[in-house]
Write a structure and sequence with these properties.
single chain, 2 helices, two-stranded antiparallel ribbon, mainly beta, 14-stranded mixed sheet, 20 strands
């Protein structure tokens, strides 16, 4: 069998195309437009400040970010006429993009024989696992020298609240009021959901411990932001972008379809003789330099007594982009 190299990387419903991040020259716990503040950089700069009884986040260091892909399809963004056609299917594409080398090759070829000549395709539809295996760590941004790590307390899959989703309140806690819920949303917060690191906020130094693998439900947590369910029937979309959408896979509770249109190489119009193509993830290293990394967001809480503790973690984009190129005959492969 001919073998086609398939090079791909992590795919996010919330950010399918992203430039290499820049890091803040004056890192703070407050959000700064256009740059990333890591917890370690804040600690090193001595620029940590937080009000009592407040939440804030900064970037920790990912040591694992892995998930599976089962199918890749070309398609259209035209609502009601997605015209999806599978170009790759397989069971050997398991990615860990926190590794230095996030590239991956599959024994299964990319083939265009299910797609229609003369059709213009302007999107990819990716069937991927709902759960990302995440692990990581962070120093306390206050310069205390203590360390937070991912934990096993709520690390498993949130099987107590199914992926039919229903209303967000079924699985998303407000603070730490419900010990049966794995995800939290700080009262008054306007950001995304976070997976709890414990039954309550903790200031325990986890330096002697290990980074435990936690299952982050990308499908469910994206639901808290992708709330438009009417523009593209059968999908959840961003209210500001009807092409940034995802949908469950019928009969497969651990998989979902993620649509991506903002990527290099699209749109393409297939012509006679087009049989394969290159699909590549242009990946940036998760660790760019001292105190510079991306992929694990840490939620912190400063209590009324001025004690800083870690509350939860989120999965953030590590930067990079997908690229389609070299549409061609498979002759000679």
């Amino acid at each position: 069998m001919k073998k086609t190299l398939l090079i791909v990387g992590i795919l996010f419903t919330t950010q399918s195309f992203s430039a290499e991040p820049t890091f803040c020259s004056n890192p703070t716990m407050a959000d700064q437009s256009g740059c990333t503040s890591t917890c370690a950089a804040i600690a090193a700069a001595g620029s940590f400040t937080m009000d009592n009884d407040s939440y804030a986040n900064c970037e920790g260091k990912p040591t694992k970010k892995g998930f599976d892909i089962r199918k890749i399809e070309l398609g259209k963004t035209e609502i009601g006429n997605e015209s999806r056609c599978a170009i790759w299917e397989g069971d050997d594409l398991k990615l860990d993009v926190a590794a230095t080398n996030g590239d991956f090759s599959s024994k299964y070829p990319i083939t265009l024989n299910k797609c229609v000549v003369g059709t213009t395709y302007d999107a990819l539809y990716i069937t991927q696992s709902k759960y990302e295996e995440t692990a990581g760590e962070s120093v306390f941004p206050d310069g205390s020298g203590k360390k937070m790590r991912t934990t096993s307390t709520f690390g498993s899959k949130d099987t107590g609240h199914d992926n039919a989703l229903g209303t967000v309140v079924n699985w998303l806690d407000s603070g730490f009021t419900d010990a049966n819920k794995y995800y939290t949303y700080p009262p008054g917060w306007s950001g995304w959901a976070y997976k709890k690191l414990g039954a309550s906020v903790s200031s325990t130094d986890l330096s002697p411990a290990s980074n435990e693998t936690m299952y982050w439900d990308e499908y469910k947590t994206s639901h808290s932001g992708n709330t438009d369910t009417t523009t593209r029937p059968g999908y959840n979309c961003s209210p500001s972008d009807s092409n940034e959408c995802y949908a469950s896979v019928s009969g497969q509770s651990d998989w979902y379809v993620n649509s991506i249109s903002n990527m290099t190489g699209l749109p393409i119009t297939l012509k006679e003789g087009d049989e394969t193509l290159n699909l590549e993830w242009i990946k940036y290293s998760p660790i760019r330099g001292e105190n510079q990394y991306k992929g694990l967001e840490v939620l912190w809480y400063m209590d009324n007594s001025g004690v800083l503790g870690y509350a939860g973690i989120g999965s953030s984009s590590d930067g990079g982009y997908l690229e389609i190129s070299n549409i061609r005959s498979d002759e000679g492969l």
